[in-house]
Amino acid sequence: MLLISCPWCGPRDEAEFHYGGQAHLPYPEDPAALTDEEWARYLFFRDNPKGPFAERWSHTAGCRKWFNAIRNTATNEILAIYKTDEPRPQTRGRA
Ligand SMILES: [Zn+2]
Fold it and tell me: What is the largest CA-CA distance in the chain?
């Protein structure tokens, strides 16, 4: 079982968390100006790296706050956890 360390609550079982997908995806400045293909790419296309990946998590069974984690998708090891208003920490590799 994976332990995830909520920035506010500390280490908790992964069953208390909800995965929120890729982190650091800025909302388009002018969505109405996008083509259907560009809008679909924003909505549905995500990176899928083997290795470190920045992703959003919510502590749904606890404080219900969102935060970011960098998880190695090959080993499931969590390399860093940080609040959404903090910059991405440096880790080996990048995705
Ligand atoms: Zn929490």
Answer: 44
Quote the CA–CA distance of 38 and 43 in Å, as a whole number: 9
Q: What is the pTM of this model?
A: 0.87
> How many CB atoms within 10 Å of residue 86?
12
Q: 46 CA distance to ligand 1 centroid (A)?
A: 26
Question: Radius of gyration of the chain from Cα atoms?
Answer: 15
What are 57-67's pLDDT values in tens digits?
999 999 999 99
How far apart are the CA of 53 and the centre of ligand 1, in A? 21
Amino acid at 71: R
